[in-house]
Amino acid sequence: MTKDKEKSPSELRMDLVSNDWVVIATGRARRPETFAQQERIKDDVSSRKCPFCKLKFSGKLVISHPNDFPAFTPADDLNERKQGPNRIMNGVGYHEVIITADHKKQIAHFSSGEVKIVIDLYQKRYLELMNKKFIKYISIFHNHGREAGSSIAHPHSQLLAIPVVDPDLRSSLDGAEAFYRSQGKCVYCTMIEWELQDKKRIIYENEKFLVVCPFAAQVSFEVRVYPKEHQPYFEKMTEEEKEFFADAMQKGLNKLYKGLKDPAYNFYFHTAPCDGGNYDQYHWHLNILPKTNIWAGFELGAGIEISTIEPEKATEFLREQ
Q: pLDDT tens-digit profile of 243-280?
């Protein structure tokens, strides 16, 4: 038997929400610890010229501040128009930066109590902007590391309140609605029920939240945090729920930090839009995607991600961190 024939076949796994396929390339599989050995672009951690360090925190752990280079700005008119067959509107909305005080201390190093304070501000700003004129969707995300798109080393998240629903979330909303029409239940609740039964991909859980490496992971070591109870809207979390969410989020980020030796990553919330629609079948969650691989021709051309470690092995590794 040749060496190539001895290799395990790769797996195609379907995402239950989007019906998109991902490749779990077991034939090119890597050991978990090799991801921690990847070379990383080191950020300049000097605070001397940091624009965020010049802001007044007044003893607060975290503050919100208008982005100095906003992608969206407030206005009284969308000025919707056509240009030939194409539609255009002005980029009306709000773009804020949510900044933690310590220049070097990232969220992965926070206590769960400190993480809750950050979540409190996410929720507060969301609630204050969601009813503004033209706002249909609010995106909250965090880029850590140069490879993940962070241009300033000082830890910060961003919040964009915009007049359209982003395509990635729209795909998730449509997938959740289609599953409900077909099966009569929430697709995310179905996945959570299976994960709790199968237990192969659970990194951590508490009374109200589940931290998992998803079955059809987009990237190696992808982590998701789900509320166990069905909830469409992130912004409706209670104080008690935020405490449990902070615990789960802190564990997920800290395990990635320890296991992969401070990888660059992006995290973002997927929550039902604030456009007045009926999204009762949706289930909000947090996605954490470490930069463990680079999209090349196949991923870009086919739109199919390739992961070089099985989510089950990634889970086993992260549990031990």
A: 999 999 999 999 999 999 999 999 999 999 999 999 99
List beta partners, residue 15.
none
Tell me the residue type at 191: M
The CA-atom distances, in angstroms, between 153 and each of 52, 120, 125, 197, 221 are 10, 23, 23, 40, 23
- b or e along 130-169 (b: 16 or more beta carbons within 10 Å of the residue's beta carbon)? beeebbbbbbbebbbbbbbebeebbbbbbbbbbbebbeeb
Report the alpha-carbon distance of residue 69 to residue 53 in Å, rounded.
17
End-to-end CA distance of the chain: 38
Q: Name the helix (H) or strand (E) containing 121.
A: helix 112-129
Domains of the chain: 3-319 (3.30.428.10)
Question: Crossing angle for the helix pair 239-260 and 112-129, nearest 10 degrees?
Answer: 120
The 8-class DSSP code of residue 97 comes to E
Give yes or no for a contact between 46 and 200, defined as CB atoms under 8 angstroms apart.
no
Q: For 140-190, how does the pLDDT look when each residue is reduced to its tens digit (9 = 90+)?
A: 999 999 889 898 999 999 999 999 998 899 999 999 999 999 999 999 999
Q: Whole-prediction pTM value? A: 0.91
The pLDDT of residue 43:
61
Identify the CA nearest to 174 among candidates 313, 91, 273, 102.
Answer: 273
Is residue 237 within 8 Å of 123, Cβ to Cβ?
yes
Token look-up 């706002």 returns 135
| β-pair type (306-307, 223-227) | unpaired
Residues linked to residue 156 through DSSP beta bridges, in sequence order? 99
In angstroms, what CA-CA distances link 164 with 91, 132, 193, 273? 10, 13, 32, 9
